[in-house]
Design brief:
12 strands; alpha+beta; disordered N terminus; 4 helices; twelve-stranded antiparallel beta sheet
Amino acid sequence: MGKGLALTMSAKWMAGLLALAMLAACGNDKGAPSPLGQAVGSVAKATLGGIKARRAGKAGTAQAPAPVTRADLEKYGIPILRAVIASRGADALLTISDDKGEVVTWSTTDGTTFSLRNGVLIQTRGMGPDLMSAQVPTLGMLGQAGGTHQRMYYFLGPEDQPTRRTYDCTMSLKGRETITIFDRKHTVTHVTETCVRPQGKIENEFWLEGATVRKSRQWASGLTGYIEFEKAVD
């Protein structure tokens, strides 16, 4: 089944994940659950249990279970990326569906995908108003305080005609920070990319750990808004 590992904060999505987990568990001849099926199942059950417990907790009848930990994720031996989309109330754990070196595509179990070039978002699929493609800065450009560049976003407009948004961008250095992602601390460099055009402004943020974008907050489209990414497991 799907190669993504999804986690969203609604009971309807959790029910779907549990169904996907059961299907994924049937993917080998011996009937043993696959690592993906186990991962989806355990994360979905924990989250669904938390939702039920929070609802019941309002009446004082139950407590939420322990949250998913780094140990829960690392035992599956696969890279995991977290994506949070505030505008949609979505909080998802993704796995790799395609790897072309600099460009890696991460997927959820429902087929939604996010393609990133060295950690910078260049494409989405399955989001409705998708980012079709983008011209984005290189990893080296992100680390150049005061550096300037152009960004171009491509979307489908009325009657599926391509439209382009062009921004003039400037990088600024926020400094060194320590962030925590699933129980692990990371020492990172926080940089901000401010992009302007006559019709408005966007601001992307990146937390760089060497040659890795450990965390980011990146604009995807006018309707989706910003997506927060955290690289939880390498």
